[in-house]
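Hey, I'm writing a tutorial for new members on how sequence and structure tokens pair up, and I'd like a real worked example in the thread rather than a made-up one. If someone can provide the structure for the chain below, I'll link this post from the tutorial.
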Amino acid sequence: MPDVPLYVAIVTAGTSVISSAVPLVIGWARDTGREKRAEAKELTREDQEVVADRRELCVSLLSLARHFRVLMENAYDSRGPVSDPNVEQVRGAVADIASQADKVEFNVPKAGAAAVSLADEARKLALTAEEKNREHGSSLVSSDFTKFDDCLEAFKNSARSALEELQDRTG
């Protein structure tokens, strides 16, 4: 049996070890990459859900405010005293707007001030309407809605800006 130099034996053994380890390393690297991509995709999905939930809070407040405006126009547009059920509806609508504004304030802080301002203006509009109706039996005029409409628009712009910024941060 011929003598094999030591370095040839070492190279031969090393080559077989490396050739058997390469597929394992490639598989490990591939699996690690998949796991990281899956985790990143899951985080992105969760972030998008948070943004969607916060957007829904803002849209809900906008919807409540618009329905309130219509309720006010309908309840206080006619001549003569407004019936108690309408007053109860108006007060309930104001409470709903205030509650939703609180949710927005805590979940979308950048739009919170505009949301609270909108709720305050809804309350003031309801009080103005009640006073006008109680004292004079007169209806609301378009100028009575100006500040409310301005607050509604300010909230819409503020919410849009806050949600776009949140969307940009989450990807």
